[in-house]
Design brief:
5 helices; disordered N terminus; mainly alpha; 0% strand; rod-shaped
């Protein structure tokens, strides 16, 4: 079963690495004509003005400012989608109770659990290294003992 992340990647479309299409992000939020106008505005080669202040509530934003704001919002939305996708992938590989009755881990709980799991795995690796070193030393001692016994038997 494909994960939610795979579905999102397919929706991004060809040649749009890391970015979602406008129609994917705003699906159902605007009419077709509004979506066309949005895409035209964002894809236009109109120069983007250097905005130094926010307009007052009673002022209208120029079309370029709306396009800039929509672009920024789109990038942030994509960034959050990517972050949430990565956290979902992390939840899938760290050991905790998965199931329909278990609540999904929060972002911070996921990161803390992953950190603790990594620390635990590192400790296990260190213990295994110590065991291997001890076993290697025991094998070396036994080989030496066997050589000594063979030398005493042959003489």
């Amino acid at each position: 079963m494909p994960s939610m992340g795979n579905r999102r990647r397919r929706e991004k479309g060809e040649g749009q690495t890391g970015h979602y299409s406008i129609s994917t992000v705003f699906h159902g939020a605007f009419s077709n004509s509004e979506m066309d106008a949005l895409e035209e505005l964002l894809n236009s080669s109109m120069p983007i003005p250097n905005v130094k202040r926010k307009p007052h509530q009673d002022e209208e934003e120029p079309a370029g400012d709306i396009g800039v704001r929509l672009n920024i919002n789109l990038r942030e939305r994509c960034r959050m989608h990517d972050l949430n996708e990565a956290l979902d992938d992390l939840r899938a590989v760290i050991p905790y109770a998965h199931g329909s009755t278990v609540r999904k881990l929060s972002k911070i709980a996921t990161l803390l659990l992953a950190k603790n799991h990594i620390i635990m795995q590192s400790s296990a690796i260190d213990e295994l290294r110590q065991m291997v070193t001890t076993l290697q030393k025991q094998v070396k001692d036994l080989e030496e003992k066997i050589r000594d016994e063979e030398a005493t038997v042959s003489s």
